[in-house]
Structures are given as structure tokens and as C-alpha cells.
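Q: What would this chain look like folded?
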Amino acid sequence: MESGFLESWSERGIIARLEEKNHLLRALTSGPQRIKFGIDPTAPELHLGHAAIFRILKKLQDTGHIIVLIIGDFTAQIGDPSGRSETRKMLSEKEAGANEKRYLKQAGKFIDIKKAEIRHNSEWLKKGGAKLLLELMSLASIQQMLERQDFKKRMDAGQEIALLEALYPVLQGYDSVAVNADIEVGGSDQEFNLLAGRRIQRKFGKKEQDIMTIKLLVGTDGVKKMSKSFGNFIGLEDASDDVFGKIMSISDAAMQDFYYPLLTDIPRGEYEAEILKNPRDAKLRLAFEVVAQCHGEAKAKKAKANFIKMFSKRDFENAPIKKISGFPQVIDVMMDLNFALSRMEARRLIWGDAVEFDGETIRDPNFSVRKSGILIVGKKKFAKLELE
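A: My prediction, written as C-alpha cells:
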């Protein structure tokens, strides 16, 4: 079985860590491997950060490997503490079940659900009861759990850590035992949990899984990882026009370093050259690629046409007019037009390449408007500035 795509992913900066790399390479070429990916149905919607991993799983599935998709209906009631600054709210079984149905529909945009092995960790964790829980607790130490960087940060900040959260990696690790995982794939923020799986497998006399962690996709803010909690996500169920517009609002840096390598198969040299030549055209191509994956090419073509129409010159004929004088800073103009709620927000928009004037992206917060032209902020706010 072919495994050359691993080198391609590494070259594109997609892979954060491979544990037992040589062993993993041999395994991928020796026959079908059981590749585990777990996801807790903590909310009804998945986003492009999940899509980046589903794309990896799709490639592995297409080369003959078995994707074992674990729905964490039991662990969702605890909440994964990875990267969190507070304890997650516990979910009911009913809430987790409702979210799962939508999860599978969204995952099906990328992987063949019918060929995947769908499991629920309540199968073994709920059935095992207190006896299994006590056995698992004996396999991990408080010291190991407190090695987590996210726990250290919370302790330093004087924030509480629930005992249930400390148990989460052990429970996720046991999932690997229950399904006989050969390889586990997850985001780079899951590294501690994936390594815990190896330890738990060893304790139960099982072969230790290889692990592959994937670089995290940043959100629309270009800073934090894409997350529903941070409100910077692009949902897989978002309308095609909204997905297209949100992609067009990301920074050029995020486009090159995260979105192109993680969400497309376009060769690195090709998209880097295109970004250097014309960032706007490169972003249009990226937005089309992403929408096509989520909604199909027909809707991607329509979304692209709608976006271009919205921001074409003829549509600016009816744009609101703002008279300016004295060469004001663009931040002041944005505030006057209510395109930003504060000067800090205006700066963040500029630093995120979300502000354009007269066809040029504004990257300097101190930029002064010295001529008439069209000011565009984000994907929907625009005005015609007229110099008096």
C-alpha cells in the first residue's frame, strides 16, 4: 500500500508529530491498518479544523486502511480538557445523541461513512462500570495528569481542574484498547491523549499504537486555533456564500501557512507562487476549493459569482458616501462609519488583512486616506470615500 503521501504532508507542514515513524511507515505498506479517530459530540456542528483531519483520514481510507471513527458519547459527558481554560459543561446522553447524527452527516462530506467502522465508547466504558473505572484509575498517576500544559496554565491562574477532566486521557486511551487501534490520528493539541493511549495499551498487554498528530488550523482571527468556543470557526454546515465570504476575510499569512496546505491538494510551489503574484486571486481559488468540498462544485461556482458580484465596481455605485478631509487615518474613518466598535478592533482587522482601500490591502494601522476610493472592511462593509 502506498505511503508516499506522508512525505508530502510533512513537506507541506501538515504533520506535527509522528510517533514511531519508521514503524508507522512499515505498517502503512504491510496491509490494512485500524486507524482510530475519536470525536466527542459536544456541539451539533463541525468546522474546517475537523475537515483538515477528515481529509487525512480520507486519503488513508482510499489506500485501503480501516477508519475507526469513535463517537465519544460517554466521554462527551465529561469534556476533553485539551487546550481549555475552564471545565467544559457536562452533556446529557440525549444531547450527545442528537449531535452525533449531524456529526456523521458532516463527516460524510469527506470520508466514506459506509466503509468506516463507527463505534461508541459507551459500549465499553458504560458497560465496564465502576470496576473498569477503578482499574483505569490505577494505571495513571496524578503526576502524569498534571504534566499537561493546559492543566499547568489553569493551576497557575488559580482555576479549578475537575477530577473527571484528569481522567479523560485515561478513558480515551482505553478506547484504543477496546478497538485494537494500530494508529491514532488527532490534532496537535491531542498529543498528550494519544500518547496516553499507548501507555494504556501497554498496561493491557496490547501492541502500542503509532500516532500521527496534525497541525491545527487557525480560525478566522488568524491567531487562535479554529474552535466553536472561540467563535472563530467556519462551520461545515454554513451556507456556501458564508463559507466563501469567511475564507475571503482571512489573512494572507493564514491562507499560505494553514488553509492552503491543510484544506487543499494544490502543490505548495503552485499556491505560494499564486499568493505572491496576486493574493486576492489566490484567495478566490482557495475559497472555491473549500466550498466545493463542503457543498459541491455547483454551489462553489455560484458562491464565487455572488462574491465577485457583491464586490465588483458596478455594485459600489450605490455604496454609502463618506466625505473626508485633512487626510484622516483609516482607523478614524472606520470608527466614523461604525465599521469597527473600537480602535483596537480596527487595528485587529487591519492586521488580519481584512481592510482594503482602492483595491489595495491596508496593513499599516497608521495609513492615511489621501484620495477618493472604495473602503472595504471584512466581507460585507464598504463605503465610497470622497476627498473634499
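The two ends are 69 Å apart (CA to CA).
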